[in-house]
Write a structure and sequence with these properties.
The chain is mostly helical. The protein has helices at residues 10-44, 58-63, 66-92, and strands at residues 2-5, 99-102.
Length: 105
């Protein structure tokens, strides 16, 4: 059965994109904090030379704030994108038919 999607409720799309953004932020926060930890440990143990980091320091501990900060930032960006996307879709479907979707019962 084919149907036309004429409107998107902004709150539902905002929730979905906020959740996806939080997951992406968590993954990137893990990569940033643990990647930085590995780099700082390698510099501290003199396995590699890097002029940009002194090794393990207070900044290493602060990098773990990315585990909280990045999901929150990406969640907020997802909510904004969901609001803008749904409102613009609803605006433009006044002139166009909408998206045709196929649904199975």
């Amino acid at each position: 059965m084919k149907m036309l999607l004429r409107t998107i409720h902004p709150y539902s799309l905002m929730k979905l994109l906020a959740f996806i953004g939080a997951l992406i932020g968590l993954i990137l926060g893990i990569l940033y904090s643990f990647g930085g930890l590995l780099l700082d440990v390698a510099v501290t143990l003199d396995w590699i030379e890097n002029d940009e980091t002194p090794g393990l320091s207070y900044g290493t501990l602060l990098a773990f704030g990315a585990l909280i900060g990045m999901p929150l930032i990406f969640m907020g960006l997802g909510m904004i994108a969901g609001a803008i996307g749904s409102l613009s879709y609803n605006l433009f479907t006044r002139w166009f038919e909408g998206i045709e979707i196929e649904v199975e019962s």
